[in-house]
User: Fold this.
Amino acid sequence: MTGVSTDTREDHAVALDTASDAALRRDDFLIPPAVGGAFPLTAYFAGNSLGLQPRATRAELMADLDAWEEYGVHGHTDADRPWVSYHEQLRAPAARLVGAEPREVVIMNSLTVNLHLLLASFYRPTAIRHRIVIEDSAFPSDSYAVRSHVAFRGHDPETAVLRLRPRPGEDALRTEDIISTLNDHAHSIATVLLGGVNYLTGEVVDMPAITAAGHGIGATVGWDLAHAAGNIPLHLHDWDVDFAAWCSYKYLNAGPGALSGAFVHASHLGNPAIPRLEGWWSTDPASRFEMLPVSTPQLSADAWSVSNPPIFSMGPVRTSLEIFDAVGMDAIRSRSLRLTGYLRALLMTIADRCDMAIVTPEADDRHGAQLSVRVSTDVGDLVERMSSNWGVVADDRRPDIVRFAPASLYCTFHDCWRAADALSQELTGEGIA
Ligand SMILES: Cc1ncc(COP(=O)(O)O)c(C=O)c1O
Assistant:
């Protein structure tokens, strides 16, 4: 933990918020009103599920609607931000966000669709080497995706999907255990696809070490960065990651169902040995409108894009990336460690008084902006009561986890205090102080 305080007084939380912090951009966001409690606005801790709306998003969307009104079909070329190349504007800031070269990144589709497109290229099973490794607690969509892929290639999902489980009595995976599983099954593993930050426990895994270990056994390595993008600094190019995808609706605040990002390492671009599923947006833009029957693949991650992009979904991503560019991931991470450390210290004082445990690892390099708490009460009911009685929005993952995401850009120390106070009130009948 970094700079942790165990002072549980509300005044102290308020005082912590007086220090200026470049990563706090609360005024740039629309904070939902509270349905209950003493404060007009919610203390919002569900940004790892759906981030809040930046104030600038509405104008961005309106500008794109105005362009459609004014230009009709000519908006493809004549709009202030021509639609035909709109996605180009997202490439560089998205690349900065995940530590990539611009040509390695494309914003397109939604997350699971991108995982499918990337698996189509990077999961190349043979009779012997046909397994995909995921976490046992992978987000269900990833589990369904990899099971469907192995079945699609004629393998049995029950044996071809290798699920990593923590040691008995532990919640988080250990890097050394992941690597030893890879080594134990070295000849049968084709692909490793893990979450960089686990959605349930908030655990950050050692992406460079696991990527290197996967390559060491001859597997391709991809990352689901849904809970990592905008949460922790990433260096996908330097880590030699083969492929990755993330959504933009959690820490990136680009709205429900927002577009996904996809990363393909430069070393794979233009490699004719790697097949792709293609459409007209995969081909070189210079000859796209020559209506040729055979594509000319682009030497960028765009080669994996299939359809023309949904322009009205691009503006919110643009707004989001502008904020991340302006603040920078290092400042976001630094504030995140302070907020999360403070919230952890407060929650620990509740754990001393009731049946509750924090399952998210404590070391700075093992967690992002999320604390997952295991409780022995009905989590759906608990989350509902925290909202209706105290105006604190967290979320539950059944059967027994409540997740709190102190998002750097808009959560305050006082929000953390409110979250701990609400949890304490609901679990022990007493406040935090
Ligand atoms: C880790 C993870 N993977 C995949 C998904 C599925 O995302 P989508 O519905 O955008 O495909 C989610 C959604 O929350 C997620 O958290």
User: Anything to note?
Assistant: The two ends are 21 Å apart (CA to CA). The chain has a mean pLDDT of 96. The chain is about 35% helix and 15% strand.
